[in-house]
């Protein structure tokens, strides 16, 4: 009873390895991309018109361009450079360095909100996916429903992204400690590896592969029709050009004006087809800014900057939100292995609990500074609060090489709140597209946001009491919460004056230590600036598709959903035979055949495996469901043959079979 045949085990392991390898991503290389051209080359191209001009090659813009180019002629204009060949973008260990780069060709542009929170916006092909922490998780079903999206189309679009650039992370000790601490603290159940937004604790996806190499939204351009797609880098669009000469008709877009990398002024135009459009995907800062500079916005603000009014809309730049993040810093006796977000606790109190850890410094690094979410930033507390501007940060970066490495050893457990409900606004500083607008987020203005933050910090306190992090700490016994809060006040840097009761009042701690997790959104809300199809209200031939249209941040991280928007939104324009290639049909058929084999083989061995798992005390994996019954919360299939579920299931069984074989008597 309970004995496992050696041959059976090897067959199981071989089969599981096969089905896991069959789920591998496309072998992407930069040779698969369309040419990435400098903007100055546009003047040497024969004048031609485009069906679509997309402003912003970011999280939404890249999948938009790839999808629309299947049928239409598309011009993609990106103000930044290429993410390829830059180690600080591509390699996980250099994540924080990227955000600190203040060089002219930096992939990020720093700004400070009027709230006193240091922030950054992407300036590179791939947008936020080229500079973020890489965590991938879908929106919750209620978000999809509230947005009025087609659930079937949504559930077809997510897998298109996942099969190209999303991976499962290798869990580090710090992330495992968070997982176990969350479960012991009551953030349950454990949902395993999942892209879905589920209450409890789970491991999400990542756009970093097994080697720690980043895969960005720019990779998705490889799926476009290269004959129809032109990509220009260092192309800063300064305004949208409208035809306003026709009386009694809406202003209509006819093209864009942009500057190339040399400062030369260029123009690109749409075809005369009435369905041709300009799509702005410049992000929550760039999209409302460009609308304002193009003459769409509050009349008073436009007149202030001598901008001709094309359309008065008082809502442009309004409803700006940024999900506040508060983190607890835990110093460690040894530098923990670096990890970005892998594990997340989705609580029922409106707080998401995540973690990051580790110190990293490469000889090739441009700087030693590793960004907001690292222990070393705490040394900035030596700078008086009123002097903690971007220039002071830069000076600090260049002076800190002689600090002892031990100063930087530690990790964070962080809390991000859902929503948020607090909102602010965006206004122009000047008419230069390269200038940062003035942005206010009004963190914790709404009392519910503050209560969610307190709930998150109290959840972290319960996690620390479980002692799963004691092996990391200097004394091996953990720290009192008041001590941890005091250290965290120093480690979280912003320009907000501190109070003496930061370590005794969690409400004050939340207000004083708030930083960003770069999930800001709003400024072009649906129903106020754009309609349900993301067409700018009051003009023709102009849409906005990106995070600026969102009322709240989707799920635990918005990048999955914003990329999905870029894939799903234009697909309604394409005939059905354009969106489903014969190659795709063949792949579904092949995978369905594999699926049928999986069910039959696993069923044959499941009883023996489960018996062994019970004896060695390992939790059993769920029964493999019938393929057609495996559905998402939105009612549609997660993907055609349950690839995501099978990857998690097979990974679980491989480990379980190894443990059983090691602990069980065997027979030939």
TrEMBL record:
Superkingdom in the source lineage: Eukaryota
Gene3D superfamilies, per database record: 3.30.410.40, FAD/NAD(P)-binding domain
Organism: Oryza glumipatula
A GO MF label: flavin adenine dinucleotide binding
UniProt entry keywords in alphabetical sequence: FAD, Flavoprotein, Signal
Name by which UniProt lists this protein: Glucose-methanol-choline oxidoreductase N-terminal domain-containing protein
Signal peptide extent: 1-24
Keyword Zinc-finger: no
Domain annotation Glucose-methanol-choline oxidoreductase N-terminal: ranges: 122-145, 283-297
PANTHER family: OSJNBA0019K04.7 PROTEIN (PTHR45968), PROTEIN HOTHEAD (PTHR45968:SF5)
Lineage, highest ranks first: Eukaryota, Viridiplantae, Streptophyta, Embryophyta, Tracheophyta
Recorded family membership: Belongs to the GMC oxidoreductase family.
């Amino acid at each position: 009873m309970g004995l496992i045949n050696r041959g059976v085990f090897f067959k199981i392991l071989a089969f599981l390895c096969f089905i896991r390898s069959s789920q591998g991503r496309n072998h992407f290389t930069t040779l698969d991309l369309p040419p990435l051209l400098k903007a100055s080359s546009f003047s040497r191209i024969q004048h031609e018109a485009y069906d679509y001009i997309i402003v912003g090659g970011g999280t939404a813009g890249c999948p938009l361009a790839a999808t629309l180019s299947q049928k239409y002629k598309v011009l993609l204009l990106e103000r930044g450079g290429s993410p390829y060949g830059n180690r600080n973008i591509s390699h996980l260990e250099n994540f924080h360095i990227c955000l600190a780069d203040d060089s002219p060709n930096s992939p990020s542009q720093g700004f400070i909100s009027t709230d006193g929170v240091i922030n950054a916006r992407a300036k590179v092909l791939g947008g936020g996916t080229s500079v973020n922490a890489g965590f991938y998780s879908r929106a919750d079903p209620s978000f999809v429903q509230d947005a009025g999206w087609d659930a079937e189309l949504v559930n077809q679009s997510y897998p298109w992204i996942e099969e190209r650039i999303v991976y499962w992370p290798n869990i580090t000790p710090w992330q495992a400690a968070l997982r176990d601490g969350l479960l012991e603290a009551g953030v349950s159940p454990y949902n395993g590896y999942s892209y879905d937004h589920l209450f409890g604790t789970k491991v999400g996806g990542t756009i970093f592969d097994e080697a720690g190499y980043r895969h960005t939204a720019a990779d998705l351009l490889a799926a476009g029709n290269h004959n129809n797609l032109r990509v220009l880098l260092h192309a800063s669009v300064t305004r949208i050009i409208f035809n306003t000469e026709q009386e009694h008709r809406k202003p209509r877009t006819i093209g864009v004006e942009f500057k190339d990398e040399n400062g030369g002024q260029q123009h690109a135009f749409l075809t005369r087809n009435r369905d041709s459009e300009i799509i702005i995907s410049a992000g929550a800062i760039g999209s409302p800014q460009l609308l304002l500079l193009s003459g769409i916005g509050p009349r008073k603000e436009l007149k202030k900057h001598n901008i001709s009014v094309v359309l008065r809309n008082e809502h442009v730049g309004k409803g700006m939100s940024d999900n506040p993040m508060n983190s607890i810093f835990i110093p460690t006796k040894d530098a923990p292995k670096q990890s970005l977000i892998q594990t997340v606790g989705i609580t029922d109190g409106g707080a998401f609990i995540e973690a990051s850890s580790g110190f990293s410094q490469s000889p090739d690094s441009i700087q030693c500074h590793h960004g907001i979410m690292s222990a070393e930033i705490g040394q900035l507390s030596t700078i008086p609060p009123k002097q903690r501007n971007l220039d002071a940060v830069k000076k600090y970066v260049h002076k800190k090489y002689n600090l002892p490495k031990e100063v930087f050893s530690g990790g964070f457990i962080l809390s991000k709140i859902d929503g948020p409900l607090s909102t602010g606004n965006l206004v122009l500083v000047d008419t230069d597209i390269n200038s940062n607008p003035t942005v206010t987020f009004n963190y914790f203005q709404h009392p519910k946001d503050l209560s969610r933050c307190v709930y998150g910090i109290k959840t972290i306190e319960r996690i620390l009491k479980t002692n799963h992090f004691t092996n990391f700490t200097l004394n091996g016994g953990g720290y009192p919460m008041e001590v941890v809060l005091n250290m965290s006040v120093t480690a979280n840097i912003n320009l907000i004056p501190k109070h003496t009761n930061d370590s005794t009042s969690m409400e004050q701690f939340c207000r004083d230590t708030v930083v960003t997790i770069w999930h800001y959104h709003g400024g072009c809300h649906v129903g106020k600036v754009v309609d349900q199809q993301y067409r700018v209200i009051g003009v023709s031939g102009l849409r906005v598709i990106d995070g600026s249209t969102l009322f709240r941040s989707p799920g635990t991280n918005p990048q999955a959903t914003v990329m999905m928007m870029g894939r799903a939104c234009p697909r309604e324009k394409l005939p059905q035979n354009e969106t489903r290639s014969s190659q795709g049909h063949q792949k579904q058929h092949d995978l369905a055949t594999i699926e049928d084999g999986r069910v039959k083989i696993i069923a044959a061995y499941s009883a023996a495996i489960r018996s062994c798992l019970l004896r060695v005390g390992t939790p059993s994996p769920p029964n493999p469901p019938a393929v057609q019954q495996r559905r998402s919360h939105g009612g549609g299939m997660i993907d055609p043959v349950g690839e995501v579920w099978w990857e998690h299931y097979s990974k679980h069984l491989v480990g379980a079979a190894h443990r059983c074989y090691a602990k069980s008597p065997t027979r030939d």
